[in-house]
Write a structure and sequence with these properties.
Length: 230
């Protein structure tokens, strides 16, 4: 008799579930199936634990299976959105001269650079002592005007030296390639015009002379934008 009642209850529940499933729109049926699977596994696990046929830990793991699947489905649906967001993520801005390659990482708010030639070639600016920075400054002032101004911008932003804007003559500095223009703006090659404009605006807000930047950096940023959107 108990088995017959159980069979009748299961049959009635199955019929009720099927009637609900048929009334669901096509785009809602999959989620309805996953909810049914979750509650079905959870209910069966509770019964098995109560009757001593399953350890409670096994029941918990069984209940997590549909949840994990649901999270996987949600993550796959989120991939296109994440790809869109990644397009707006910029790399560190790079400013290159003959003797220096300086990077500004706005995410970590750090500025550093590599020395490309001279006695300290291969070293990072952050590795040099104050005396070595002074020696490098004197050498660049005599041999590489643009690198000297770029170093002064680094020293100003890092708080390690004095800076004289009157030394700058941006119009006389060397031109650069389209590839370098993208690097100055912290963008990947082939970025859209909209991305170039947004990157230019963001950099000017952070590197404008009135905000701890310099006329030299501002001029390079403006040139990079003009080269890419002209």
């Amino acid at each position: 008799m108990p088995k017959l009642l159980l069979l009748v209850a299961i049959t009635a529940a199955a019929w009720y579930w099927w009637s609900l499933f048929r009334r669901k729109p096509g785009d809602q049926r999959r989620s309805f199936l996953w909810r049914t699977a979750f509650w079905g596994i959870l209910g069966l696990s509770i019964v098995l634990v109560a009757t001593g046929r399953m350890h409670w830990l096994g029941a918990g793991l069984a209940a997590l299976i549909p949840i994990g699947k649901g999270l996987l489905v949600l993550s796959m649906r989120a991939l296109p959105f994440l790809n869109i967001l990644s397009r707006f993520k910029t790399s560190p801005s790079q400013f290159r001269s003959k003797s220096l390659l300086v990077e500004i990482n706005f995410a970590s708010r750090q500025m550093d650079g590599e020395i490309l030639q001279g006695d300290y070639a291969g070293k990072r600016l952050s590795e040099l002592t104050e005396a070595e920075l002074q020696e490098l400054t004197a050498w660049l002032k005599q041999s590489d005007r643009e690198s000297f101004v770029l170093l002064q911008a680094y020293l100003l932003r890092s708080g390690n030296g004095q800076y004289s804007p009157g030394d700058e003559q941006p119009a006389n500095f060397a031109d650069f390639s389209t590839e370098e223009a993208y690097k100055i703006l912290g963008l990947e090659d082939g970025a859209s015009t909209e991305e170039v404009i947004k990157a230019h605006k963001r950099l000017m807000q952070r590197l404008h002379p009135d905000r701890g930047g310099s006329d030299y950096l501002a001029a390079k940023i403006n040139r990079a934008k003009d080269k890419l959107v002209s």
